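Researcher: Here's the sequence for the chain we discussed earlier.
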Amino acid sequence: MPAVTDWLTRSNALAALEARARERLAGLKAIELPAGKVLFRPGDEVSGFVLVVSGRVGVYMTGPTGREILLYSITPGETCVQTTLGLLGVEDYSAEAVAETALEIVVIPKPLFMDLLDTSTAFRTFVFHAFASRLQSIMQLLERLAFTKIEERLAAILLERCDETGRVRNTHQDLATAIGSAREVVSRRLELFGRKGLVALERGHIEITSKSGLMRLIG
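Model: Thanks. This is the structure I predict for it:
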């Protein structure tokens, strides 16, 4: 992994920053975190703006019954709507963020974040453009949950997460969380997909045997 001190030169999302803004951010150091690390939990105070330099973060919400749903993932160049809302609206976190892979992040302290919003046009544009894109993705999630059948959502996530060999190395619970369903429901649908010749359920992974068949389910 590249040195943590050169994060700003590797952050394409901030390439358009003015020289003064870059100087102020250059003093911040990137932090390396392992996969599985929890970045925040419901009720935690929002103390800074998190930039993902490398890796991926999953943001999850848990219901009263313990059922989880993946709200969105954060990759380099994307931001966390929970963090932005917390900084602008002085609200605590209401979801949980977990490192899905090894991470490099930079935390911009709230005072610096607020000052850059006031003084840097490029930084302000980045924050609000990313915020708008994230809100749009959440609206699309709500639309899928409300109007899309389980089979369609499951077929789409299988195609999204399969590797070049057609294997999906996620548990049934992982898939259920990603599409907003229950593990038992996903397991039954996967068995049905297996009987239709769309997938093969192997030990430790799911093998897609008919991508075209899954695509037809999506419509």
